[in-house]
Amino acid sequence: MKRKNVVFILADQLRADVLSCYGGSAVETPHIDALCEHGRLYRRAISPHPMCVPARASLLTGENAVVNGTLDNENWLRPDRKQCGIQTWPEQLADVGYHTEAIGKMHFYPWDIHEGFQHRLIAEDKRHIHLHDDYAEYLEQHGFKREHGDALPGYHENKGATVSNIPAAHQIDRWVADRTVEFIENRDRTKPFAVMVGFPGPHCPYDPPQEYLDLVDPEKLGPFIPETAESRRLKPSFVSNNKLPWNSVDYAEFTPEQRRKVKTHYCALVKQIDDCVGDIVKSLKNRGIFDETILIFTSDHGDLMGDFGFVGKQYFYENSIRVPLLVRHPDDSESAVIEKPVSLTDLHSTLLEIAGIPRNAGNDSIPLPASDEAVTREYVFGAINYGFMLTNDEWKLCRYDEARGGDMLFNLKNDPQEQINLADNPDYFEIKNRLDNILTDRILKSTLRAHEEKRCTMLGDIGAGDFGLRGWQRAYPFSAKH
After folding, report:
1. Over the chain, what is the mean pLDDT?
2. How far is CA 334 from CA 4, 36, 354, 444, in A?
């Protein structure tokens, strides 16, 4: 059977409800919406590790953040992961004959490594102004340069919202789309391809070109979720983190007007990405391979975008962890909407399944279901350096470190805006205890799996063979392959 091509589009920090197909109305996103035609829309796709680097590490490996050790943006996968039996999906697809290509932002450390992709064209984070990547070279050739958002007018007073001084034709997301189109047009036609397209937007700084800003209707932004006692306990860490040089914005005061300004600029960046997606799809059609290609569109995490007085991610609130997830498969005869929760990490096994590769048993990734009836995942387990989360289609238990407020329990069906913390309500003790036991089990099993490479021997006749002789040396690392 001929293998399908894969175009895997990963936006950065895109929350689901801004897109028209998820109910957004401030901008129209017809090109992304069109992926729902003869495609699957996952209504509650969860990014279990809502930070850029942890989310991407789990996507690559199918292992959760506790197992792979990437719990914040300053960690990355171990250099000896292959010896430990940990492979990335591009490595595995390349092994069965795919050409694997990465275009745009990947957020690897070091930034120019390949992690299994056979070729990369690199446009890293918009804030990484000192990287001399492929996009930086392109800008130099056209008389422009990357600038940190705080060098642009209005950045501080508008809490990170500004207007880019780079024309729309040379924007970083446009560059990523143009390079993807070139790849599709010039690809090696003797083998299937899997290309990962990493848009650096709509991640902050919220810096669209003016022509896209003009397309947003500020009257249709919708209301913001109010602050709560729990969110106020999280605010000191949010404020201090955003004051750091990576952002240089003080959110100690964040007025409704400033929130609306930020969200308006964010929506303009989303509109720009929608046009870019349209050009990629058009190229597939022009080359006659649209119906030979599976398209996946998602994001590494969401953006609170003024909700609870926050922007960005890091916390386990819905608009931080919920991402759009659309899968357009040419073999699907009709569209489907899957309401039950799925994990972003499930894309690892899904990509292996597309290529006809058995999934890695024991990891935290299962193939995405094609319908609600096919859902087998009961819970999504999440972790970052601040704490842990367990959620299903009704309940969410969050366990933050002591500095950020401890436990939070929400009934998502009765309280979708997470305003009422039931963690200390005695009426919900049994529910909390049940979720807590499951969460503890996931943490323990993940911790054990994270240290499998230190295993000295498989259990058996201890003392038999070389093991019982003086000078026996254990193998390190012990391979975690199953």
Report:
1. 94
2. 18, 9, 19, 41
- Report the C-alpha gap between 270 and 317 in whole angstroms: 21
246 phi/psi in degrees, rounded to 5: -60, -30
What's the token pair of residue 275?
């046009």
From the list 90, 89, 57, the residue with the least C-alpha distance to 73 is 57
- Tens digits of per-residue pLDDT, 227-270? 999 999 999 999 999 999 999 999 999 999 999 999 999 999 99
Give the end of a domain, one of 382, 404, 433: 382
Q: Are residues 360 and 393 in the same domain?
A: no
Q: Do 356 and 430 fall into the same domain?
A: no
The residue ranges of DSSP E strands in 256-406, in sequence order, are: 293-299, 322-323, 325-328, 336-338, 342-343, 380-384, 387-391, 395-400
> Quick one: pLDDT band at residue 100, thresholds 50, 70, 90?
very high
CB 481 within 8 A of CB 85: yes
Task: Verify that 356 and 400 share a domain, yes or no.
Answer: no
pLDDT band per the 50, 70, 90 thresholds, residue 467 = confident
Q: Are residues 352 and 443 in the same domain?
A: no
* Residue 112 located in a structural domain: yes
DSSP-derived secondary structure letter, 95: H
Residue type, 365: S
Do 138 and 106 sit in the same domain of this protein?
Answer: yes
Task: Tell me the average pLDDT across 273-280.
Answer: 98
Contact 410, 420 (CB under 8 A): yes
Strand partners of residue 7: 195, 295
- The pTM of this model reads 0.96
What's the CA gap between 297 and 447, in Å, rounded? 31
Domain containing 403 equals 388-468
